[in-house]
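Before relying on records like the one below, remember that each one covers exactly one chain. Contacts with other chains, cofactors or solvent are not represented anywhere in the record.
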Amino acid sequence: MLSPLLSVSLLMAGGTLVPPAAPACSDSLASRLASHLSAQLTPELKRSADERRFSGVVLITCEGRAIYSAAYGMANRTKGVPNTMDTRFNLGSINKMWTAIAIAQLVERQQVDVNAPVGRYLPDLPNRAVREQVLVKHLLTHTSGLGSYFTRGYLEDRPALTKAADLQRFFVDDSLAFSPGARFAYSNAGFALLGMIVERVSGTNYYEYMKRNVIERAGMAGAAFLTLPTDDTRIAMGYATPPGTSDTLENMNMVERTSSPAGGAFATAKDLVAFGRALWSGTLVNRALVDEFTAGKVSMGGLKYAYGFGEGSANGWREVGHNGGAPGVSADFKSFPEQGIEIVVLANVDAPAADNAMSLAVSAVTGAPQRRR
């Protein structure tokens, strides 16, 4: 039996949790949070890891400074490689935030208008309804009426993508399910189109644009859009349990072969913290646009969806972020901009591993009730 607890590091201090009164993460608050996290979070995470319900990493930072970090389980069970804080995990849909920021950068340069129709930027798109009726903001808020590109053809082909436009053949002929703007319906195809807009407007391959303008600018040294399979032992192998079975299988043939504008990029927990810090500092795009893109616009359960970001509240603390999931992939990122706190949970097992661990972490940090799945 593999030992699920492989490393835990945290800052210890006395005292109890006290929510911050000021919009900054002071040294005293960081110390109190670290002490509280040690008592409240570690035992629950260890129990989940012992029961094989969690394998991955948890990182909580205060203005970029780690106040809690823990790694559990194995990145590669066959090769005996443990998860560490340097392990790169499949993010699922988390990198939709990155695609949204690329669009924000083009808005900042006055090259894209979120209120313009898709056809202004993709005039040769074969689907007339999408060209004329769907606005860029509909793509960003999942209100376009488009669905997914995970069709039978896509799942059979699992193409190795070289540009965002390679995805359009799997959805471009689909009819709109409803009038654009009428309601929220999660759409990976919509974010594929956003990737195509980035390519067309910037004149640069989507993957190269993202590397230069988002990944490198944010200082995400371990982040990358990858093509699978890979023998890189820094990459966490996902372990999926198909419905109705108790068998755990490697997921390389169950997820996208190539990371896309809609999801599947790889990064470390530290990379996502770097993204959060770069976001709120205005390093990626000016703060006015950051505020516009992260302000909730469409109801989505107890949250609101903004432009590629989810926005909610935990015990009165504003939270912004995104989660992601796929077979053998469970990931969640939350930022509390007013408090300067980021929480990252990345797991290489099925959902709801990250969701439950995130609920524990948010409860420990903010005092909000846990939302377990």
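The first strand starts at residue 5 and ends at 10.
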